Amino acid sequence: MTNLKQDKKRSPIGRLLIGFSGVLALLTLGGIGIYWKTLHSAAAPVPVRFIEAQQDTLEITLNEGGIVKLGNQQTLKSPSEGAVEEVFVRPSDRVTAGQVLMTLRNPTRQTALATQQVKIQQQQSLIARNRQRVGEAKAQLEADREELENLEQLAADGAIAASEVSRQADAVRQAQIAVRDAESEATSTQLTLQELQLERQRIEQELNDTLIKAPISGIVLDVPVKAGDGVEIRTDLLTLGDSTQEIIELELSTLNAEGVQLNQQARISIIGPDPQIYQGRVVALYPQAIVSNNANGGGNNSGNTGQPRVPTLIRLDQPTQSLIPGSQVNVEIILEQRQNVVVLDVEGLQNQSSRWFVWQVDDTGEVYRQPVETGLEALTQVEVVEGLSPGDRIVVPPPDMTLKEGDAVILDEQPPTEVLPTPPA
To answer: Per the confidence metrics, is the pTM higher than 0.85?
Structure first.
């Protein structure tokens, strides 16, 4: 009975505690909901940059250094030992094919030519005498034959003895031998004359080589010798080239050469700021790699001495008349090109699960994934063959933040921070 009374006495307090606990639970749940709602409604838009897809030309290029040369550029060399007698041209002079550029002195061969001419004259005189001997021998043979015929007729008539006919027949045979000997001697002297004439032609050719003539029409690039200089055989005398053709020589690594083909377009420019661009094409590609020991032989070979390289020639479409032979230039070979395609900077391209997409913004200012299909890929740009049109705006998210679909974005109008150079110590 006592316990029952105590329970009845405590019931209002218990009910109050239970009620208070319920109110507290409702307040807690309400706070969590309000916090969740506040958290989501207060999320600030992400500041991003925008880029546009462009309709443009996309290229994959190969950049190399090269050396300017002229077409048919060649160095004329001394054909023999001697000395320079006279030089008729200077660097930058224009010459025509066949023009005498320089003469060499060769007294030994000049003396040899005079001696040979004397021998030829002596031989010609001997030939003339031999011809005369042949004529005389033939005339004697003819007379002996006529005499033999007469004696044979007289012997037949019984007017002379048969022994007279025999002696005359011996005379005819001796005359025939004399004719053969004279003709043989004449033939021998004629062959000797031909040999002497061939030797004279050889000496004349050697002397003609002392006249250094232009093999082509072009421009003189270098004259390293002067009158009075002694020269050895194959000494460099003069360099010239065809100024209507300008050639760029370069040496490619074997890896880069794999993508280069004949007739590919190339752009040539002088190394430096704001260079003028000249157009050219690949006209020669060596069929095998060679090891060059000349670090200056092909533009960017410094540090690659001893490495296999592939010599390559680029010819300018039009001569510039301004590129200096021997100077270094930059060559940009166009390996592949697509014109009038949709082009996007690679920074706007995203990848997930090996599939490409870009971030775009809907009408509410929230981002969504736009799948794209790519084509030709260059260093900083890529061709988009499906999924974008020229002028489409693409979101470039901050590098330190990952976007997800539905995120609100806003244009980041903050200018890039300028990095000041560190003052010298």
So the answer is: no
